Amino acid sequence: MATVKLEQVTKIYPNGTKAVDGLNLEVGEGELMVLVGPSGCGKTTALRMVAGLEDISDGSLYIGQKRVNDMSPKDRDIAMVFQSYALYPHMTVAENIGFALKLRKTPKAEASAKIDQAAKILGLSEVLDRKPGQLSGGQRQRVAMGRAIVREPSVFLMDEPLSNLDAKLRVQMRAEVSKVQRTLGVATLYVTHDQVEAMTMGDRVAVLRGGVLQQCDTPQTLYDRPANVFVAGFIGSPAMNLWRGVLEGASTGAATVDLGSCRLDVGDAAMAAHPELSRFEGAEVIVGIRPEHLSVAPPSSDGGGELRGRVELVEALGSELMVHFSTDARHVKAEDAADDPAMRTGEVATAGISVARVGPRVDVKPGDPIAFEVESDMMHFFDPATGGAIRQ
Amino acid sequence: MSGRLAKRRGWRRVVNGVNLASLLVAVFVSAPLYWLVSASLKSPVEIGATPPTAYPHPVTLTNFRQAFLHYGFGRYLLNSVVVSLASTVLVLALGILAGYALGRFPMRGKLPVLMGLLMISVFPAIAVISPLYLIMREIGWLNSYQALILPYTAFNLPFAIWILRNYFIGIPPEMEEVGRLDGASPLRTLWSIILPQARPGIFTAAVFTFTACWTEFLMAVSFNSANGYRTIAVGIALFGSAFVVPYGTIFAASVAAVLPIAILVLVFRRSVVSGLTAGAVKG
Ligand SMILES: Nc1ncnc2c1ncn2[C@@H]1O[C@H](COP(=O)(O)OP(=O)(O)OP(=O)(O)O)[C@@H](O)[C@H]1O
Ligand SMILES: [Mg+2]
Description:
heterodimer; A: alpha+beta; Rossmann fold; CATH 2.40.50.140; 6-stranded mixed β-sheet; 21 strands; B: mainly alpha; binds adenosine-5'-triphosphate
């Protein structure tokens, strides 16, 4: 058992691409740490550096107490599951799982006992004599896992191990991988670009973007208190609605925020939770509201303190409705927030489509005007200049 | 096209352009072969008959007996086996290492090397016969196995390297990475992980090299004309004397010479076809 620690780890590829930039991360003993972020943000690169398949340009990597920057992959005591599984096509399942043991000259009887045990854990006992070509996608994935666990490494690395599976199997394997990891209690660094996978599997989740760590915390904290606009937009499905608004009346004790032509109340509780908000009196802030925190207002209401718009599209999911609506508030796209200078000056902010998640019995049709009540203590506020959350 | 073919009924399903064309090609290719085999089984008298007979009547093995017992064709066969086998083994050993390095490792000047190899492989052998002959004579290698093994290896290596390199490129790089993580040394990775996956490419290179050595004539006749070192190609050509051309014996020897190649291709045909088309389509 061991921990993994990255200290200011940086990767610059020979062609000058800075794929990972000053990454600090610590995976505790037995912890499942998920590394998540959009495509090209450097997740695979970070993982490969930990594996030793890629040189570390700068910074230090520790496994256990040892600095392992210059240690060869096989001495790091890690096992990695590749996205493509990378099973040896010419070996049977048993040989695939046992190859590392064979290289270590593990006695035959001991090796085959370990292979059998791994196969039992993963439900592969029936297919030990088959070649990878004769297996289903889920079974191949399990063989890749088996190859990793049979070595009893002190660290697991997994690079999008489930992304080749269909949606249903993915959900099932998600639970299985978590279970196996928990049973073995091995520190695990798990890469995915799927935020649902990240949220459901991770003890903690590190959100990466453009090679830079945005936030690393428990899934619930990421959801409740995103550190910046990017994390706010990335975590949660459907994504958090983000608008530009102007804060008024913070000093008078009856704070409101103007989103287009709508004026929403910012309750005292919300003001108390974000004391720094008073600095933005009369200034622009980015307001974030999750789709599940918008509820349809009764038609009779007077239109004050509500978010009004027009229904564009209704998706019925059975248990709930996704109401896509447009407002005259200026919309912020999270993906290109924060380091896009045009966005900071507000030049590209336009009326986009917002989403609300409402009960299945609400009667709405595309084209209808609609008004939402907002739970004000569920509002998030971000500084438009930095993209960072406005908190204390 | 397959749709249109599938719609045809009755005799038109069998008699159509595609089938007729393939039949034509098949006849065109196999007619000389048939003639060779059937003639080798005819008696000398029947071979000379006009008009020629369509099949041997009666079937006789006289020609084969003549070739092996009287003309010592067994010796030539043995020489060819030694030379071709040794060359093939050398070509594979060197070609695998070179092809792997050229396919997988980052290195400077890869393109010039590959271009150079390609140029060597289309270089006409006749152009180097005289200088090579002089060298061989100088170092006393005329009429020896190595006089053929060495040039055969050199001339067949470039093509083998190309085939093998292309095959190695098609194997996903994760294979080596997984091997490294599993704790395999580079040589072990090559041996236990890469080579088994490159088997079709290796067979292809082997069959091509072996066939080329087996049928080579120019160098063989120039460097090894002494009776004890003749290969089959030279042996067959030099059968007989200025006054006698023993056609029957030549036919029989030719059949005996073609047989190993035919068996080789038959056994490895699947691997060879897939080796030649590797990389053409993914997967
Ligand atoms: N060998 C390489 N040489 C140069 N640049 C590279 C190399 N490998 C990756 N990159 C670049 O580094 C950045 C990070 O790549 P990486 O593969 O780590 O992304 P990722 O987060 O794993 O993306 P994905 O979700 O698509 O797998 C990308 O901009 C990529 O183009
Ligand atoms: Mg990746």
